[in-house]
Write a structure and sequence with these properties.
Blueprint lengths: L5 H8 L5 E7 L8 E7 L17 H14 L2 E7 L1 H7 L1 H14 L7 E5 L9 E5 L7 H24 L5 H4 L5 H10 L19
Parallel strand pairs: 1-4, 4-5
Antiparallel strand pairs: 1-2, 2-3
Helix pairs in contact: 2-5, 3-4
């Protein structure tokens, strides 16, 4: 089953519209930023087939990303860097990226739905929903935007630091990535607060 628009319709009926869905990508990798997206869909043009980005092929994500970009009422995308992650920890950096994404919206929401169980503190009402990226259309759209955006960022980083193969694994701790770390040490985009970099190398 794909995500539905029922919660958004309920928000419209309850006077809590605009509603934004938020999701993040990149909590677990050893390198690169954590990226959050906030999306306010157009109730008259909800894309078909929205779902958790992890359940979609890369080609389908790209296709839906283009449709969302063209049809959504507002999209905000933001990130927190590896340095910020090391400074304030991954949880706080994720919440910071989410707040930045909401602030980047051209239309400010009256309510927000966030994937997971750890919502950011916002000026408007905010509810977290475990598995929301597979249930709520706005969150699913945000998960797709965040994933496609971060993958593109990691592909650009791969051009700057080709030894690590970021475009292949997006910074996650694959055997290929760990072998490159052992061979070359970390680059500035690595998270020095994450093992196996932590305690071995310093910025």
């Amino acid at each position: 089953m794909t995500a539905h628009f029922q919660r958004e319709t309920q928000a419209i009926s309850n006077g809590l519209w605009p509603l934004a869905g938020i999701d993040e990508v990149g909590r677990g990798p050893l390198a690169g930023p954590v990226v959050a997206a906030a999306v306010i869909l157009d109730p008259r043009a909800v894309p078909d087939g929205l779902d958790d980005s992890k359940k979609l092929s890369a080609a389908r994500r790209e296709e839906l990303f283009a449709i969302i970009a063209q049809s959504a009422l507002a999209i905000g995308v933001a990130s927190a860097t590896a340095v910020e992650i090391d400074t304030i920890n991954i949880r706080q950096a994720t919440l910071l990226a989410m707040r930045r994404a909401v602030a980047a919206l051209a239309v400010q929401p009256l309510s927000v739905l966030v994937d997971g169980n750890d919502p950011p503190v916002l000026a408007c009402s905010c509810e977290s929903i475990i598995g929301g990226d597979a249930q709520i259309a706005s969150i699913a759209a945000a998960s797709i935007v965040a994933k496609v955006t971060r993958d593109a960022m990691m592909a650009r980083l791969c051009q700057r630091y080709p030894a690590y193969g970021f475009s292949a694994h997006a910074g996650y701790g694959t055997p290929q990535h760990r072998a490159a770390l052992q061979a070359h040490g970390p680059c500035p985009e690595h998270r020095y607060s994450f093992a196996p970099v932590k305690g071995v190398w310093r910025r």
